Amino acid sequence: MKAIRRFTVRPVLPDPLRPLSDLARNLRWSWHAETRELFQAVDPEGWRAAGGDPVRLLGTVSAARLGELTRDRRFLRRLTAAADDLDDYLRGRRWYQNRTVGEGDDTDLPDAIAYFSPEFGVTAALPQYSGGLGILAGDHLKAASDLGVPLVGVGLLYRHGYFRQSLSRDGWQQEHYPLLDPNEMPLTLLRRPDGGPVRVSLALPGGRSLHAHVWVAQVGRVPLLMLDSDVEENGPGERNVTDRLYGGGSEHRLLQEMLLGIGGVRAVRAYCALTDHPAPEVFHTNEGHAGFLGLERIRELTDRGTDFDAALEAVRAGTVFTTHTPVAAGIDRFDRDLVARHFGPGAELPDVDVGRVLQLGRETYPGGDPNVFNMAVMGLRLAQRANGVSTLHGAVSRSMFAGLWPGFDPEEVPITSITNGVHAPTWVAPEVIRLGARRIGAQRAEDALSVGGSQRWDAVAEIDDAAIWELRRDLREQLVHEVRARLHASWRERGAGAAELGWIDGVLDPDILTIGFARRVPSYKRLTLMLRDRDRLRELLLHPTRPVQIVVAGKAHPADDGGKRLVREMVRFADDPRVRHRIVFLPDYGMAMAKKLYPGCDVWLNNPLRPLEACGTSGMKAALNGGLNLSVRDGWWDEWYDPDFGWSIPTADGPTTDEDRRDDLEANALYELIEQRVAPRFYDRGADGLPGRWIEMVRRTLSTLGPKVLAGRMVREYVEQLYVPAARAHRSLDPDAARELAGWKSRIRAAWPGVAVDHVEVDETSEVAELGSTLALRVRVTLGDLTPEDVEVQAVAGRVDTRDALADARTFPLKPAGGGSGPDQQGRWVYEGPLTLDRTGPFGYTVRVLPAHRLLAAGADLGLVALPAESAAEGAGVLLR
Predict the structure, then answer these.
(1) Contact 199/270 with Cβ under 8 angstroms?
(2) Taking CA 287 as the corner, what is the angle to CA 260 and CA 322, rounded to the nearest 5 degrees?
(3) Which has the closest alpha carbon to 596: 660, 661, 650, 551?
(4) How far apart, in Å, do the first and last CA atoms of the chain sit?
(5) Radius of gyration of the chain (CA)
(6) How distant, in Å, are the alpha carbons of 219, 433, 439, 565 from that of 443?
(7) Which residues carry this modification: N6-(pyridoxal phosphate)lysine (predicted)?
(8) Contact 258/348 with Cβ under 8 angstroms?
(9) What burial letters (b/e) apply to 276-296, b meaning 16+ CB within 10 Å?
(10) How far apart are CA 553 and CA 586, in angstroms?
């Protein structure tokens, strides 16, 4: 029989145990070992059954056990200490509160930042993530909390989350969508003063409405607001808007993204009004899914009397956009007619011109489709500051979106990069933390993991080889037990009887070199590259003196049959009785599994098609536990690879190499690395029985790579490089300044066709010059209806290739001749200035005119530039000796 109604019955805790409720409702427990250990002590068996979720645990503890705990003085002392520690964590001054900007001035720090993301991976107890984007977002919140950064997270609450994965008997991926009850999760419904739930509403075509409640997850110091459309006021279609992460068709996804962006801003306003939380000055869009937040903020300003163009400038000033995809196929794109139906009269934002809305997302550049609404394009047009998530990805993004800034070389496209990081307290095994704490003290170890600072990591050098090797073996042994338990459960789910599974007791060996590979399964991540030569892989797995064992996990998107075929191919290989004790595939990869997998692997494998991995943070998590990376130089590994702490898989990514040939070459390189370099180093033991060179690589990984891969480092960079400048820009653009800037841009765009570089003169006629000499440039430009105050005239100089293309270029501003007294008789303005020849070899220069205004974030902001015609230049290149 099925129940006709469902309730959540919460326990009534005795007064001495009331602090348990506060500890359970703040997700800091997910990265605070002492709090987790306290909950485990409440009921060890119940803790295991609850999957390490304190809210579920407290819902199952018997009244008798609660009574025992009220009389347990030792437990009560631990409870008091944990509650006091949380209070100190929430109220104390941290990095952000102690930071100064410039010379003792902290007034530029934003009062608050709103961080929008379609998914958040904070803890397995709140399964609202599918992969790297969500885990990164969760780590961003946790690191911001540790640093005291006043962040407000904004997302959606998916009632089915992402899917749970199992396998059929023949290895085909099966998806399951369990119903999630927010009342049974560490969430609190946001309520009005009268006790009723806060409701956010959007207008839909045809007189319909989309309503949502707001749930709050407290992530340490950071509130995470999650909008939920499963409310009674909605019709059946609207109730299902937040059913699944990345589910449904185009309109379903559009409604999700409108609710996230537009509804999310409204939820933030309601939350700040109810709690007195400072209003955000900076809005950070984590990928394009939340891009509609900019439209809602424009609507807020236009409702207060600001015109659209001025509101656009004000919104751009305080917006940061982070792109995570290096391929156009990874961007959400909607039919422009579908978007048009959902905006304007009779729908959402009725007072905002729908034509202006569509223009923000149209692909108006060469090669784009003007009938498509591109969410990343809108994100870039609505943000004054944008970034990729690794140095290489920043370069890829600048090329990918260069069409939005015509006339500029890709390296000048205003997209910077901040390399992702991972939240060490979440991903580092407690055993690793305890080893560090014994060397430098618990508080210093905590600071090293959350805030960073290489001087705190140097203490790794003091740890003796035997202690490191013992730790690594212990973690490997824990992984072996975890794998056997999960493999047994998976085979039972696949239909195997207990009598068939005795072989699982011999799966993996805690003394064998262990390689891990776990991630989502799109084709570019190449789950099955290791299977290109199966005989050779078997030889590596079964080597008589240097065997290798591999743990593999990963989910394919439910609609990706190609990815599912890759999973089945891997599963069938791992099912082979000849090798199944040395290679396993674990279904249902998620945070709980990952926390065992990363610490237990000696080597973390990553072999994407370069440069399609934007960052890839799984190898960072392994590194923080002393795992070595074996990876294609893509994403973060491209900038931080060092042979002292890992190996680089050579790539064959030339333009003439076909895909099959490339996979064969790179798979062969992978086999050779494992066979000739990785395995020998692991098994090469000294007289003391220890692999000294391997242990030294582990030590270098922890001391040198560790501080770089921290989410604390990442969030500090966001604050200093993006949030503080965005807050300054936001404050400088009051309504008058915004109108001024908007009017100036309109005038510049109208007059720009009349701007030209007419003539360039140089005082050097020879094609060879001496290093350190100076050229005197004299340039005549036509400005039309503009004045010298509207522009900057620059010389651009650098090395040149055989086609005269500039590389490593630097810019030098030129000044109006005669102090800018006026144009010559032909109406041209004369600019002049020196150009120092500071590099040897082929050297060249050009000149250009850019719009210039004190409120512009970058010279390329408008995408306007005037360059000389061929006939305008005299002697454009020199060879330096």
Answers:
(1) no
(2) 130
(3) 551
(4) 90
(5) 30
(6) 21, 11, 11, 48
(7) 621
(8) yes
(9) eeeebbbbbbbbbbbbbbbbb
(10) 5
* Residue 727 · residue 282 · CB < 8 Å: yes
One DSSP character per residue, 652-714 reads ---TT--HHHHHHHHHHHHHHHIIIIIHHHHH---TTSS-HHHHHHHHHIIIIITTTTBHHHH
* CA–CA separation, 610 and 280 (whole Å): 37
pLDDT of residue 729: 96
Q: pTM of the predicted model, to two decimals?
A: 0.95
- What span, in angstroms and rounded, lies between the C-alpha atoms of 90 and 86? 6
Residues 148 and 221: beta-carbon distance below 8 Å: yes
Write the single-letter amino acid at 460.
V
Report which secondary-structure segment, H or E, holds 630.
strand 628-632
Amino acid type, 390: S
Do 124 and 162 meet the contact criterion of CB atoms below 8 Å apart?
Answer: no
- For 818-835, the pLDDT digits (tens) are 766 788 878 899 999 988
Distances (CA, A) of 189 to 184, 226, 258, 829, 867: 12, 10, 21, 64, 58
Among candidates 777, 782, 794, 776, which has minimal Cα distance to 757?
782
761: which strand partners? 778
State how beta strands 151-156 and 173-176 pair: unpaired
What is the number of alpha carbons within 13 Å of residue 635 lying toward its C-beta? 25
Phi/psi of residue 829, each to 5°? -100, 140
What pairing do the DSSP bridges indicate for beta strands 791-800 and 646-649?
unpaired
Q: Which tens digits make up the pLDDT trace of 717-757?
A: 999 999 999 999 999 999 999 999 999 999 999 999 999 99
Tokens of 667: 């798979």
User: Residue 131: what residue type?
Assistant: G
Do 628 and 604 meet the contact criterion of CB atoms below 8 Å apart? yes
Type and span of the H or E element at 403? none
Cα 638 to Cα 22, 622, 704: the distances in Å are 43, 17, 16
Tell me the C-alpha distance between 114 and 94, whole Å. 19
Rounded Cα distance between 392 and 394, Å, is 5
Task: Label residue 269 exposed, middle or buried (CB < 10 Å: 0-12, 13-18, 19+).
Answer: middle
Cβ–Cβ under 8 Å, residues 315 and 301: yes
Q: How many helices (H) and strands (E) does the chain have?
A: 33, 28
Residue 472: exposure state from Cβ atoms within 10 A (0-12, 13-18, ≥19): buried
Cβ neighbours, 10 Å, residue 450 = 22
Q: Which of 219, 232, 25, 221 has the alpha carbon at shortest distance from 117?
A: 219
The identity of residue 807, as a single letter, is A
Name the strand (E) or helix (H) holding 98: helix 95-98
Alpha-carbon distance of 432 to 424, in angstroms, equals 11
Q: Which amino acid is at 86?
A: L
Residues 360 and 315: beta-carbon distance below 8 Å: no
Spatial separation of the C-alpha atoms in residues 620 and 627, rounded to whole Å: 9
Q: Enumerate residue ranges in the chain where pLDDT < 70.
A: 4-10, 100-107, 453-456, 656, 764-767, 819-820, 870-881
513-518/548-553 β-pairing: parallel
φ, ψ at 120 (rounded to 5°): -140, 120
Task: Give the separation between CA 21 and CA 59, rounded to whole angstroms.
Answer: 11
Q: What is the rounded CA–CA span in Å between residue 487 and residue 509?
A: 15
| DSSP secondary structure code for residue 833 in this structure | E
One-letter amino acid of 247:
G
611 prior amide bond cis, ω within 30: yes
Rounded to whole angstroms, the Cα distance separating 333 from 375 reads 6
DSSP string, 507-569: S--TTSEEEEEES---GGG-TTGGGSSHHHHHHHHT-SSS-EEEEEE----TT-HHHHHHHHH
Asked whether 215 and 352 are in contact (CB, 8 A), the reply is no
> What is the DSSP pairing of strand 628-632 with strand 282-286?
unpaired
Per-residue DSSP letters for 749-814?
A: HHHGGG-EEEEEEES---SEE-TT-EEEEEEEEE-TT--GGGEEEEEEEEEE-TT--EEEEEEEEE
